[in-house]
Amino acid sequence: MSRAFLLCCAALSMPVHAAEADDADRGDGRTIIVTGRAVGYKADDTATATKTDTPLIDVPQTVSVVTRARIDDQALRSMADVLRYVPGTTVGQGEGNRDQITLRGQNTTADFFLDGVRDDVQYYRSLYNIERVEILKGPFALIFGRGGSGGIINRVQKTPSADLLRATAEGSVNSFGAWDIAADVNAPVADNAAIRINGFYEELNNHRDRFDGKRYAVNPYVAVDLGAWKLGLSYEYVNDDRVTDRGIPSVATGAGQPNRPVRGQRDTFVGVPGINRAGLEAHIAKARLDGELADNLDWSTTLLYGDYDKYYTNVFANGPASSDKGTVVLSSYTDPTTRRNIIVQSNLVWKFALGDVGNTLLGGLEYGDQRSANQRRNGTLSNSVFDLANPVYPTVQFGALARDTKSDVTVLSVYAQDQIAFGDHVDVVVGLRYDRFRIEGSDFIGAAPRPFARTDEKVSPRLGLILKPRENMSFYGSFSRSFLPRSGDQFLSLTATQSNLAPERFTNYEIGAKWDIRPDLSATLALFQLDRTNATTPDPNNVAATINIGGTRTRGVEAAVTGRIAPGWQTSAAYSYQDAKLRGNGFVRLGQVPRHQASLWNRYDVNPRFGVGLGVIHQSSQYAAIRTVPTTTRLPGFTRVDAALFLKASDRIDVQLNVENLFDETYFSDAHNNNNISTGAPINGRLTLRVKL
To answer: Among 364, 372, 529, 539, which residue's Cα sits nearest to residue 435?
Structure first.
């Protein structure tokens, strides 16, 4: 990246719009569907963590919220961008084709939600139509059911408002040549109805050789206020096509020592141009109906339909390199998947008092039908040995089917929760969830189709105690238990061995404190323990297999401060410590769990027209996969500094420059296993122009 580019952009740049973002988050009397309130970087409440509109200070678990103001100020473009600034969360490579994260030691590709409804297909999620991202950690099983149970990621969609006509156009370009354009239009169509249309187009590029791609999406959303009832109808079309990049391999450092990423290969593409490609086409429709049945008795139902067609083809390093400039063995496969989701979720909330005891009683029902088809063909390479110093790309031929499955998952869940207020100082959250998870399907590899089926019925309890010595301060303790079916988080198949194993079980404990120092500034502290039994993990030496490891335990602490420190100065600061290992064997460490993570982002408005931003991410070393042998690859720790300049050129025009990795740190951002390691980008800039029409 040219430093001259940054200097030239700095002379042009800089937006001040955090204050305006506050208004979008709060809503007003004519907001038809409320998504939550926020003041700048600080969110006030959530309707996700308890499925009731609850102040965050009254939620007995860790909830990190990245508001739209922060998304815009930091020029965040992906879920990975968002989560790098959320300690306790690490971003996985996802084999270069999907969002994949580790929360409190638990790796998942499926614990993603959209407005509280499961969004578990493997793809990259954009932020163009998102008002906020909520990261819930710890005891959440009652609300969301099955999953990896370190936590969940919930995206809250932008919704229409009947107050006035608003339109924003935005364009940006970065120093690698990537660029995007986006539009957000809110239009009242009657006193009680509005439409909001979000759309974007993006050309992808980065520091890596041979990388390119494009993605685009459009999302019209109509909302109508019918008096006692409110109706929202949303449709989203997503198209994503990009190079599949699985990074660089590792290399041995010496007998009994961890492997490390190869050096001097930051930009080297280990794959085959034209073959390494991933694509997704998705149609996602959502209908939401909210109503007041009687005083203090509300009902809501959400129906989500999703149709996803995805392909994924890759050539990748299938072992360590012989040296930093040596050779590495390649492997290859292609993997198309189709899925159709139908999920219905209905909730009834009744607020009532028994004497001095207040109750917010939630009753819920969820039904899901998810049909998937997946195939895999392994590739044969004309030359499976790749020379890092002198890359020559082989040809690839894909053979007969190595996997061919179809599955149908039906889920029925019933849950009840009561938020009990004993006066002003003691709250209790208690509830149970019943899940019936049924998978049936066929494996078509072999002389005859092999049918498979299994039904799991589990009860997930939740208990939380909240003590509030003052209205703006709480201390809490929380417990929950949940499960993950043996078909995994993508339920593509079920082997004979898996069908005889009990589901994985997760038990979460958390104690903590929350303090709203001011309405626009909060501090939180949490200590947690997550025990996992009957545990399995991806085999770092076999992309198609898992290994049984017994029981794991993650213990840790998280602390955060979010909000406005002083007039014109907003911050988001957080730290986490995690100790994640196999129970009874401290040598076995869980993969992609650094012991220490810290992040700090500041925005300071020097005056109403000019502002500056500064951010720091620190992450200690981590193992790329679960450490079972001394030579498991270890990624070194790193510290990355980001910066921004903001200029409010007029009442309608904002300009900003964001600089990532200001001091050009060499680092390894994430991995998929011991030999698929992503390299962090060198210093780069993004110039953004935002116009309010």
So the answer is: 364
* Rounded distance between C-alpha atoms, residue 58 and residue 415, angstroms: 20
Q: In what order do the strands lie in the sheet with 106-108?
A: 89-91, 101-103, 106-108
Question: What's 56's DSSP letter?
Answer: G
Q: Would the CA dihedral through 439, 139, 83, 519 be positive or negative? A: positive
Query: Which amino acid does the sequence have at 10?
Result: A
Nearest to 155 by CA among 184, 124, 132, 121: 132
3-class secondary-structure state, position 36: coil
515 in the Ramachandran plot: left (φ > 0), alpha (ψ -120 to 50) or beta? beta
Sign of the CA dihedral running 406, 339, 153, 479: negative
| β strands within 58-165, DSSP E | 62-67, 89-91, 101-103, 106-108, 112-114, 117-118, 130-137, 151-157
First to last CA, the chain: 33
Reported in sequence order, the residue ranges of 191-326 that DSSP labels E, i.e. its strands, are: 193-204, 213-225, 229-243, 250-251, 260-261, 277-294, 297-317
Rounded to whole angstroms, what are the CA distances from 564 to 27, 74, 180, 548?
20, 16, 30, 47
Dihedral, 383, 385, 388, 391 alpha carbons, nearest 10: -10
Q: Looking at the whole model, is its pTM more than 0.70?
A: yes
Other Cβ atoms within 10 Å of 559 Cβ, number: 18
Q: Within 13 Å and on the Cβ side, how many CA atoms surround 10?
A: 11
pLDDT one-digit tens code per residue, 291-349: 999 999 999 999 999 999 999 999 999 999 999 999 999 999 999 999 999 999 999 99
The tens digit of pLDDT for each residue in 76-99 reads 999 999 999 998 999 999 999 999
pLDDT, one tens digit per residue, over 360-418 is 999 999 999 999 999 999 999 999 999 999 999 999 999 999 999 999 999 999 999 99
Instruction: Quickly count helices (H) and strands (E) in the chain.
Output: 6, 43
